[in-house]
Structure formats: C-alpha cells, structure tokens
Design brief:
single chain; mainly beta; 14-stranded mixed sheet; about 10% helix; globular
Length: about 270
C-alpha cells in the first residue's frame, strides 16, 4: 500500500466504474476500520470533475452525503450526468463498498452543479474577509488517540487560533499525499481533501468526552482555489437534542473561495 496516496487505482470496468484500494492514510479519527470523510469526498469530486468534462464549465456547488461508514477496503466509484444542459448541468457520483454482511452498498454520494463559465473579472468580489496569512500561524502538537490517526497525520497543520477557542477556529492545512496514486491533485480535489475537517476546526467539544460526526458537507465555490494551502475559518453550533451544525469559510492564500456547511451528530461518549 502507498504511504503517499489515499487510494491506489485498480482499474476501470467497461461501464466506466473505477475501482480503488484504500490505504491506511484514509483512517478516520472515530474508528480504525472506517475512513475519514475527507478522502471519499475528494474522490467523489474527482469523479464529478471527470464525468463528461467540458473546458467551458466548472463545479460551483458540491453536496456530499455520507450514507454509512466507508470501510478501509476496495471501493468502486461510478458517475453520470443527471441533468444535462448547456449553461447548467447536474452531475452525480457514488462510492460503493462491501458491507460487513458481504452486500455491496452505496456508502457515499456526491452531487455537483456545473456551470458554464464567462468573464466576470471586472466585478469580482469576496464578501468574507481574508484569513490571516500563514506567517502568523503556529504549529500545535496534536497529541492523543483522536489525532494520531491515518488521515490526520497526512495533513500539515498550521493554526491561527487555539483548538476550542471562542469564536471561529482558524487554520491552514495542506495534504502531504495525493488523492490517487500517480495523479496530481486538481485544485478542487485538494480543497476537498481538507474541507471535511471544518467541524473539527470549529468544535468546542473535547473529543475524549464527545463524538461529533458529520453526515454531510455542502460547499459553494465562487472561485477556483489556487496553491497548495487551504484555509478554514469555521465554528460549530450545538442544539439541545444531539444535533449540531458547522458553518465556515474556505480560503486559499489570495482570499476566500467559498463556504461550507455540515450537519453534525453529537453524542456523549
């Protein structure tokens, strides 16, 4: 297994389905038999980008639904155009895995609106303030079983705030692995390798006392990200009945690129 990639390609079937082996770098913070939500999300984005691609369009909104635990095993990804169109189209991708009972199931699903692009540089504007630069960030020792897991160790972390601080948590991160062995990361794939950690960046809870798993993530991108580093400013709100919501802004080193929301299931350990 590769120690520099989240997935190793195993081939493509005649119907276009791609097969992958999952590496140890996909390991979740919540269990050593399941994948963290970030690598499957990025793999679904890769499928959305490659589904009937067009040079004059790009992904503008992606919704990832995590339908169940994604095992660290061989998986399959398939994609299709759900709603074709010249200016706007909807593309769909599904990640399939074999469950404990030996039955194949869809473990995650991604949908993406893809829009035809046009020159609007004259009116370009970001409504959110830029994140403080990496030069103001600091490394934080991520110690304990929650942090010492495959996916978490695959990222380089630079924190602008303390973990669990008042207000939004803020950090910069970049993956030290590629998504698929032998392939460079696309800008949007790189963003999604990091984006799913937003609810952890914005949490106020001690993971030794609480679990907070997200069931989804929705990302709106008004600009294609650039560079190797992804910035997140995020904060999680908690309701009185075991449900939370993370909301945040995603950045590159030139400024904001979009926003993210996640639904979070909160439980006392």
């Amino acid at each position: 297994m590769s120690d520099q990639a989240y997935y190793v390609p195993l081939g493509r079937d005649a119907d276009g389905t791609e097969r992958f082996a999952s590496t140890a770098l996909t390991e979740s913070t919540w269990g050593n038999t399941m994948q963290h939500g970030a690598p499957p999300s990025a793999l679904l984005v890769r499928a959305l980008e490659r589904c009937a691609p067009r040079d004059d369009s790009r992904l503008t909104r992606v919704v990832i639904e995590i339908l169940g635990p994604v095992p660290i095993s061989e998986i399959e990804v398939r994609s299709w155009v759900e709603r074709p169109g010249k200016r706007v189209e909807l593309v769909v991708a599904e990640l399939w895995a074999t469950g404990p009972d030996g039955t194949a199931r869809a473990a995650a699903r991604g949908t993406g609106w893809r829009m035809q692009t046009a020159d609007s540089s004259a009116i370009a504007h970001a409504s959110d303030p830029a994140l403080a630069p990496r030069s103001q960030a600091h490394e934080t020792a991520l110690e304990g079983p929650f942090w010492d897991t495959g996916f978490v160790t695959s990222l380089e972390w630079m924190w602008l705030t303390d973990i669990g601080c008042e207000g939004p948590g803020q950090m910069w991160a970049r993956p030290n692995a590629v998504l698929v062995e032998g392939e460079p990361l696309s800008p949007v794939q790189r963003l999604f390798v990091v984006a799913d950690v937003a609810n952890g960046v914005g949490t106020k809870l001690d993971p030794a006392e609480w679990t907070f798993l997200n069931t989804d993530l929705t990302v709106h991108l008004f600009r294609v990200p650039e560079g190797e580093w992804v910035g997140i400013a995020a904060e999680t709100s908690y309701g009185p009945d075991g449900v939370g919501m993370c909301a945040g802004v995603l950045h590159d080193e030139s400024g904001p690129v979009g926003r993210i929301n996640q639904t979070v299931q909160v439980r006392a350990r």
